[in-house]
Amino acid sequence: KFTLTFAPTIQESAPLDDTFVRDSSPDNNHGDYSSLTTSYGTSHDARYPYIKLDMTNVVGSPLISEATLELYVKDLDPAGMNINIYPVVSESWFEDTVTWNTQPGYDTVDPIYTNLVIPPESTWMTIDLTTFITEQAATPDSSASIAILPVENGGAAGLKTKFSSKEDVNV
Fold first, then answer.
1. Over the chain (171 residues), what is each successive 10-residue block's mean pLDDT?
2. What is the DSSP string of the chain?
């Protein structure tokens, strides 16, 4: 859930698009999956979620007091995984067409977060995107996207986390 607070008004919405890309199936699309999986390692292939947020009511607004993204942690294997969150440099991707081979680039020079700790499974993770959304509001784009990548912790056999996507009817 994407929540914007324009003091004193609160606006909630689902992401416009959410999916993940997977290096072991570089031409397959995963936009209709109920999970957004992030993983890496020798026992898991690389998977990177992308989330596109609706900025229609935000563009040009100086009144944003808070912007948060809430992700439900469905599965965490093993506990203690960290993630990096990066701004996506192009809004030209769509959840029903993007693949590993067509994934948009993301800005690794200026990440939104690094080493963000994922809470235990079956809990909500709230990510403060206020600074990012405020910066994006100064652009004419009607959407803003983030990429979620796992933090590789040197030689681990593999880490995998599943967040609920907007297609998950159980959350």
1. 64 89 95 93 83 81 80 85 92 96 95 92 92 85 90 69 91 75
2. -EEEEETTEEEEE--SEEEEEETTSTT---TT-SEEEEEESSSS--EEEEEEEE-TTTTT-S-EEEEEEEEEEEEEESTT-EEEEEEBS-----TTT--GGGPPPB-SSS-SEEEEEPPPTTEEEEEE-HHHHHHHHTSS-SEEEEEEEEPP-SS-S-EEEEEE-TT-TT-
